[in-house]
Amino acid sequence: MPKPPSFTARTPGDPRPRMIAIDWGTTSLRGVRIDAQGQISERRALPQGILQVAPGGFADAFAQHFGDWLAEDPQLCLLSGMVGSRQGWQEAPYCPCPADFSALCQQLLWLDLPQGVPTAIVPGMSSLAQSQVDAVHGVPDVMRGEEIQIIGALQLMGSRDGLLLLPGTHSKWVQAQSSSITGFKTFMTGELFALLAQHSILGKTLDSSAALDEAAFIQGLERAQSPDTLSHLLFGTRALSLFGALDPAQSASYLSGLLIGQELRTMPTAAGSRVAVIGSSTLVQRYSLALHHVGCEAVAFGDEATWAGHQAIYDHLTQTTVSTPQSLPPQP
Amino acid sequence: MPKPPSFTARTPGDPRPRMIAIDWGTTSLRGVRIDAQGQISERRALPQGILQVAPGGFADAFAQHFGDWLAEDPQLCLLSGMVGSRQGWQEAPYCPCPADFSALCQQLLWLDLPQGVPTAIVPGMSSLAQSQVDAVHGVPDVMRGEEIQIIGALQLMGSRDGLLLLPGTHSKWVQAQSSSITGFKTFMTGELFALLAQHSILGKTLDSSAALDEAAFIQGLERAQSPDTLSHLLFGTRALSLFGALDPAQSASYLSGLLIGQELRTMPTAAGSRVAVIGSSTLVQRYSLALHHVGCEAVAFGDEATWAGHQAIYDHLTQTTVSTPQSLPPQP
């Protein structure tokens, strides 16, 4: 395996890029070129997720889409996301929690690229080490791609501690303490919503394309605080429709509220808590609504968290100072 | 609407049938002919669920499959199941809980059949009345077809009280007190298992056709006692596979254990409890294993519960004595 390179940060006047940052997920490939000043100088997004690449074809696919950037002599190319999974370019073993930023950097998986650019895959993280795994009391959790967003959001907040939420197909709630990721939990919220809307009996009385009905969403959120299991609560959506208490648009919002409400029920979302929410604007908006409803503050981040995370690794590798403030700054 | 008929029970020597009992579900049509002695003299099962019948075509479809029995001058024809739903022959409004046997009989929906045989649809039941419905604190639950099995199982046990379980696509847990159905809960266990195995990421590392792995099933059961929500616990199945802790056959059993374990977690299944389990032998076996694991006793019933329920309604309408013992009989 190639060794990590040793280099210093490029001087701001250098015309060559500092780095190429890539997020290569299951269904999409996104990249940015970052110049010597640390500014994003170009962005690319392609529908070429890892599922679209044949085994063994990753180096060629990457050169096809980013060869011109690699030819510009960047100091570093970093790849995050499912590209480091068993189905990706090369498997980057999960970095177990608790893990700080240095641990993650030490576990970067360096690749040998023909273009000669130092290139590494950011490892995913696991909530437990392999030796702790047990099907009842030691069930592990895993993420790939979210870790870089978490690092980025903490950097952007200038924070060492916090509760972070990455909503999506599989929502992740992450605890950070003293700049370490200490634990996290995955909820299959987005996938369950899609499955239920498309394939279950709930779909018969549900319009998943309708705009959010806030009142129904909040009703679902509140109902989800019940100690009943989700497999029972879900059926309530159907029964309420049969009784005319929810129309199809309301049913979709109610179902969304149920699923998201179950996340809130089991996470530390006491009134007054602050949660960093990282994701697409639609999801961030919906989760922010939920968090506000229970009295929490939501701090929103989008793509910038991913690229800030990549830059933080560059900074670490080039040993420039990474700011590590002691606590969250006061809010404006 | 036709009025309920008044008649007395046929004498045992009468060559004509006492009744035709029909269970007409979403995907199947089953019926038995019961002779004047109260014995089942013939059975039929057809893959002609209500979804296979065009609106307005129920009387013809029924005559096609059971016309010869109707011509034999039975005293009564009873239909249970989804045939009484909005998509069925005619909608029989839900009978709200708590409801005893008389209440259910009073709400039979009588049909006007050309053959002149007194024919009624058994109503489904709802956990709440329409006026009590509220999307947060008054979420209703519904069943159709299970109510007749519950009545039948109570008759067969000679019991007025108990906890009854009807596993399936939508598992129902039912409380009976003093011969009344006082409440029930539905769990989307079977449907969720099928959705997750066929359409979710869990399906990638899961063999749903494999035989039950008891150890993995029990691990799932135990894991499901966690206060975490199902949408988190489900993802554990995936993570355990990634860590090599579950193979595809074990994953299927573990997932089944998780879903069934969540039912047990929220129902009164203290050690020493007795639960009547009514359903197909495969499901009854699996739930019995789960109940035994937590120290409960499972009393198994199959089809006979359905037909005993139909007979109990005949007995009630003909005013013969329906046995109403005070408690569960001692076990052999």
From TrEMBL, chains A, B:
Membrane-spanning segments: none
Pfam families: DGOK
InterPro entries given in the database record: DGOK, DGOK_C, DGOK_N
Family matches, as Gene3D superfamilies: 2-keto-3-deoxy-galactonokinase, C-terminal domain (3.30.420.310), 2-keto-3-deoxy-galactonokinase, substrate binding domain (3.30.420.300)
Top-rank taxon: Bacteria
GO biological process: one example: D-galactonate catabolic process
GO molecular function, one term: 2-dehydro-3-deoxygalactonokinase activity
Listed CDD domains: ASKHA_NBD_KDGal-kinase (cd24012)
Protein name: 2-dehydro-3-deoxygalactonokinase
Species of origin: Comamonas koreensis
